[in-house]
Design brief:
The complex is a heterodimer of chains A (460) and B (194).
Chain A lengths: L1 H5 L3 E4 L2 E9 L2 E8 L14 H5 L3 E3 L8 E3 L1 E2 L11 E2 L5 H5 L4 H5 L12 E7 L1 E4 L3 E3 L17 E3 H8 L20 E8 L15 H15 L4 E6 L9 H10 L3 E4 L2 E7 L2 E8 L4 E7 L1 E6 L1 E3 L3 H8 L26 E3 L9 H19 L3 E3 L5 E3 L9 H5 L5 E10 L2 E10 L9 H5 L5 E3 L4 H11 L2
Parallel strand pairs in A: 9-20, 11-18, 12-13, 12-18, 13-14
Antiparallel strand pairs in A: 2-3, 3-8, 4-5, 6-7, 10-19, 15-16, 16-17, 22-25, 23-24
Chain B lengths: L3 E6 L11 H8 L5 E7 L5 H14 L3 E6 L2 H14 L7 E5 L1 H5 L6 H19 L9 E3 L3 E5 L3 H12 L3 E5 L14 E2 L4 E2 L2
Helix pairs in contact in B: 1-5, 2-3
Chain lengths: 460, 194
């Protein structure tokens, strides 16, 4: 993270959203909204004094609600850039003007409650989408696991936050309900994954391995602990993955093949009732903590980003690659590439590989001074264009605009509107040629005349 | 006078196992403007491409049809062969008799052969109408935008930046790191994530 922030060739815009993208491959114009941070990034030294003095504490999003954070905060200690931001929704000073403690204690005078969003325009030649994933919200559909009513049923990401040394429990695994160290931990895989009825049809790919890791961490960190894993299949298709899973088994993780049908409280424990299909009988485990391996889904707002940048998503909302085998990191929109889980669920090694692959594609493009465009794009015959602009309305690439031409008629110069095709933006989809009522638009290489010749031949 | 060369690909047994290629070749010879018909086990192979180039030069062909697989697979391959032979790469048409014919009609070889004739006739009719097309050149802004500052975005940005290009890395949260930075350790090496 620090490498990226300090790299002389990288300009980092955090707390910034992409507002608008115009242009085409090699020549995009991007509008970015730098959200108001209320902290002057140049003056702030990141000392953290403001964070300790802020009187208002709210649930930390970064810790998934397990811990609390002040309203001027860094999400975690190694944050990059290592400077805080004010949460405008909860900050008392920004809500009703009553507080202002952070500005008073700040030794450098960096806090600025008058800060406003700022729009920045940048010109770029290529765009890489790396918007990542979110986790499937199991609490809405999995009634058998308690719809989120039992505090000791958590997700794998909650588990990670607790085990993280800079997390809300300082690296200790604790039950959210009473803070006790859990001895019996049950893991349930495929929650929302491979489940057509309640979740998504696909496999989320990373869960088998992180659940094996979690089971090992329980066994290593907590004396006399037991780890049970309910699974449908164990999928370990990667280098050293199967060996890693075997290590979890060797360390004593109990793998039970079957689904969990019900979780219910019994005293301060949770009874996990499921099936062991390998021995063909029902099993019950009295657990202190239940960890769900929830499905990866496209990150919130990723559909809107696809619309802003201008490319398609698949049935699950992941970004569509141009070809699943031959062009896996490109989209069908020229100059727009894909990296990581925005394209589909994947683990860290695969994400890093794909990110480097996308980088190579970008470098390949940027290493040229000029690039050849596909000549099979729309061409307009201005003489017969009526200027109705139906083509403009149907063009998915915003490649058609109106233009005014002047021509001589009956000894006079008259002006009229015709459609005009931007050859950089046009991707040659042909939608406009179908919409054109006067036949003025033709897709070069697929002209009306050529298509009709094919139809005639096919009908012979 | 237009001179069309038609190249019929066996694709091993993918096409030839279903479509009666010698019979197809006899039929194709009767199509208008067809000056040359040739079969090849794999048109996309080096000898296959060389055969196309040789025929273009020797027979003075001015347009080419390859009846093989999907243009999504090999259109670029054959266009390059045309270019090598000195033809405009857009004086070319493909008839997809694998995905659109032999694969889907594997159990009806007779009908598949008739359909292959239709597909090739269609492609020949179109190629007779094509005109040379020429590429346009556009300039390139040598800067990249990476949207998302998780592990994927960070890795991409660093790799592009290391290659000497300017990168803008945009993250909607106040810190980069994404989900990766939330994790404790990551398998299989169990090293820390932040």
């Amino acid at each position: 993270m620090v490498v990226a922030a300090q790299h002389p060739n990288i300009t980092l815009y955090t707390y910034t959203e992409v507002e608008e993208v115009n242009g085409y491959i090699g020549n995009f114009e991007v509008t970015l909204r730098k959200k108001a941070r209320y902290v002057d990034m140049k003056k702030c030294t990141g000392c953290g004094l403001c964070e300790t003095k802020c009187p208002t504490k709210v649930a930390s999003e970064y810790d998934l609600g397990i811990g609390k954070r002040p309203c001027i905060y860094k999400p975690f200690p190694q944050a990059v850039p290592n400077k805080p931001v004010i949460d405008p929704v909860n900050c008392k000073k920004l809500i009703d003007g009553k507080c202002g403690v952070c500005a008073k204690v700040c030794p450098t005078g960096s806090v600025n409650y008058e800060d406003k969003d700022e729009l920045v325009t940048e010109k770029v030649g290529a765009i890489v989408m790396a918007t990542g994933f979110d986790l499937f919200d199991w609490t809405k559909t999995y009634g058998e696991y308690g719809y989120g009513q039992y505090p000791d049923v958590i997700t794998g990401l909650h588990f990670e936050r607790m085990l993280n040394a800079s997390g809300p429990t300082g690296g200790k695994l604790k039950r959210p309900s009473d803070g006790k160290i859990p001895e019996t931990v049950v893991f349930i895989k495929c929650v929302g994954s491979r489940d057509d009825t309640k979740g998504r049809s696909y496999c989320s790919r990373a869960c088998c391995m992180y659940t094996a890791k979690h089971a090992m961490q329980v066994l290593e960190k907590i004396p006399n602990s037991q780890a049970y894993v309910f699974y449908m299949d164990v999928r370990t298709p990667g280098k050293m993955y199967e060996e890693f899973y075997q290590r979890a088994l060797d360390q004593g993780a109990q793998y039970l093949r079957g689904r969990v049908s019900k979780i219910f409280p019994k005293g301060d424990k949770l009874v996990v009732r499921g099936e062991d299909t390998l021995v063909g009988r029902q099993v019950e485990v009295e657990a202190d903590l239940v960890v769900l391996a929830t499905a990866m889904i496209p990150s919130t707002g990723s559909d809107k980003m696809a619309q802003i940048v201008g490319f398609s998503t698949d049935k699950d909302g992941f970004y569509t690659e141009a070809h699943p085998k031959l062009r896996p990191v490109e989209t069908n929109t020229g100059g727009v590439f894909l990296a990581g889980a925005c394209q589909g669920p994947k683990d860290v090694p695969d994400t890093v590989s794909q990110a480097s692959a996308a980088a190579v594609k970008v470098v390949g493009l940027l290493s040229k001074d000029q690039m050849a465009t596909n000549p099979r794009i729309s061409a307009i015959n201005e003489a017969i264009c009526s200027g109705c602009l139906h083509c403009k309305a149907v063009c998915p690439y915003k490649a058609i605009d109106a233009k005014t031409v002047s021509e001589r008629a009956h000894g006079q110069v008259v002006e009229r509107t015709v459609a005009s095709v931007n050859t950089g933006l046009c991707q040659g989809c042909g939608a406009c040629t179908v919409a054109c009522r006067s036949g003025a638009l033709n897709l070069k290489g697929f002209t009306n005349q050529q298509m009709l010749a094919e139809v005639d031949a096919a009908c012979q | 006078m237009k001179k069309v060369g038609v190249f019929l690909c066996h694709c091993g047994t993918n096409i030839a196992g279903v479509v009666d290629i010698p019979r197809l070749a006899e039929e194709v010879k009767k199509f208008p403007f067809v000056a040359h018909v040739e079969e090849n086990k794999y048109c996309c192979s080096e000898p296959g491409q060389d055969a196309i180039i040789k025929a273009i030069k020797e027979q003075n062909l001015d347009r080419v049809v390859v009846a093989s697989c999907s243009p999504r697979m090999h259109e670029g391959t054959f266009q390059k062969a045309l270019q090598k032979a000195g033809l405009n790469p857009y004086m070319f048409e493909m008839a997809n008799m694998r995905e659109h014919c032999s694969w889907v009609h594997a159990k009806q070889p007779e009908l598949a052969t008739l359909k292959a004739m239709d597909l090739v006739r269609k492609a020949v009719a179109k190629v007779a109408k094509v005109e040379p097309l020429f590429e346009d050149y556009i300039s390139i802004t040598k800067k990249a935008l990476v949207i998302g500052g998780g592990i994927a975005g960070i890795q991409t940005a660093i790799d592009i930046a290391d290659a000497g290009h300017q990168v803008i890395l945009v993250e909607r949260e106040s810190t980069i790191g994404g989900k990766m930075a939330m994790l404790d350790k990551t398998f299989p090496t169990l090293d820390c994530s932040a």
